[in-house]
Amino acid sequence: MNTTEAAEKLRGWFTGRLPQDWFEGPPEVVVDREEVTVVGTLAPPRLAEDVSDVERAAVLAGHIQRHREETRDRRVAIAREAEHRFGHKVSWGAACGDQREMFTSLSVPVMTRLRQPERRVLDTLVDAGVARSRSDALAWCVRLVGRNADEWLAELRDALQHVERARAAGPKV
Question: 138 and 95 in one domain?
Fold first, then answer.
């Protein structure tokens, strides 16, 4: 099974497995080598018409927190079932309005080899107090690239899906 099929299978399983009253529509399910991330969109709570942006943000944060607490036991059970079935750890989050919060997520070590110019970049970020360690500095750089190259990365992921489909349709070796 290729990566696209595996992601579709996981997305379908979670969409079918999760209680229908938890989220508006199907959850966002993102898969990588180690982790499945499930983020659902909550129906917005009713607000008074004339609340400030500060109050609105607080209401949304409280709404997400309430969902987190009320669904914890069932999320843990579903995650265990998925981990056993698919061999991936499961992380959870929720979105409501313009707020998005991850409840859990993995921090996975990644081995990399850097030459001196790249190490100096990381050391500069550490020395400037932007990051606590080279590891934090590297994570900061990856997040920055991810934010600033979203469109390009999306095109690249789409192209990879086309390659996987072409491989799957080709002759079996």
Answer: no
